[in-house]
Request: fold
Amino acid sequence: DSLLAYYRALCVIESRFPISDSPGHARVGFAWYDAGSRGTPTAIEARDIQYEKCAVLYNLAAAYSRAGEKYASEDSDGEGLKRACAAFQTSAGVFETTAGVSEKKLGEQAPTLDVSRECCEVMQLLNLAQAQECFFEKAKGKSEAILGKLAKQTGMYYDEALTKARETTRFAAYFDDALMGYMTLKSALFNAEALRLAASVTLSVDDTDVGTAIARLTQARDLIQHAIRDVRVAASDPTLERVKKFLDEKIMKALRTAERDNECVYMCRVPKAEDLPALTGANMVKSVELSPELLSPTRETLFKSIVPDSGTKALSRYTEMVDELIRNETDTLAMASDEARLALREMEFPETLIALSTAVPLCTDLAEQIAAFRSSGGAAALSASLKRVDELNRQCSSVVKTIRETLETETAEDGAARAMFGPATWGREPSNAVNTHLMQ
Reply:
């Protein structure tokens, strides 16, 4: 809880007090001992709050790992192994978070290698291996096939951690012999256990397939013997003693029994190790990240009355932008006012507007005509007259239409009679000639 509270406080401080060697920043040094340094440890100081955050996360992950080791050692009924497994997985998740922060914020410039991305990945794999080992220990009593897969996956995790620690150039002679020996022995132990269990499963399926069992057991023996020969740890090292005991009591005993049975009874050919099918593991663990709320500083009240540095800079920039905008708009307004004043002067608008605003009296005749119009009814009387004119117009148009139709009928009848009786008999003057003036 203290480490989490301190990490959240660092996140708050980071936004309010920039810490670095840059001018204007707080020059606060953070000193830590490199976790992987050999010989006499020396404190390394760095004026970088990102380094401090990575170091705190590293210690938090180490605390979870230490708790996992404690739970596992105190196990009496399996509940301790369950808690240990959860602690190791959480430790792996925190190491994963540390690796991400280190890569993003520190890059290749990490003051110490222990908080570098590569080292955190090694620690992450190592904790996953220990979590998987808890699953293996808790599963004892299950079938040998299941145990074999769990053991193989445990060995694979130890293998990955060991390979990454050996192959990373920056880690040359960095990790101490105890840690490298631990990973080497654990990798050999669980890979050998997976081979031993695979040999036992083979014999349980077909007790005549002794050759395959001997090949598996021989491979397990060689694996452990090479590991014992390569590690540089004290002879009293607990892991080394456990591996030696496993070799003598499990591997060699089973191998001698299988070889004796094969020589006396089965006489099977022993295949080469590379000809055997590869063993597969069963992964039961994963990195468990901490809840974001545990690392988020949103609920922290530390320095809440102090405006963050980023906010101060943003406010200063905002003030500058507002001042610049006011200056620009004021200049634009002054220029537009000058242009409007000149345009009005050219059009003599002030004088013209003044003149038009003064009332002009009407002449006497026009005033009398307007008075007479108003006395006769005004606009209402004029509208009534217009309606009456429209009505008379419609009546006249109807009369004219009737007259036109009558004249056209007479012209048609006159033409028909002239055609029937002939011009000599029908001698009156044609209607269209007589009625021309009327039609017009």
Notes: The mean pLDDT is 87. The chain has 15 helices and two strands. Strands lie at 30-33, 43-46.
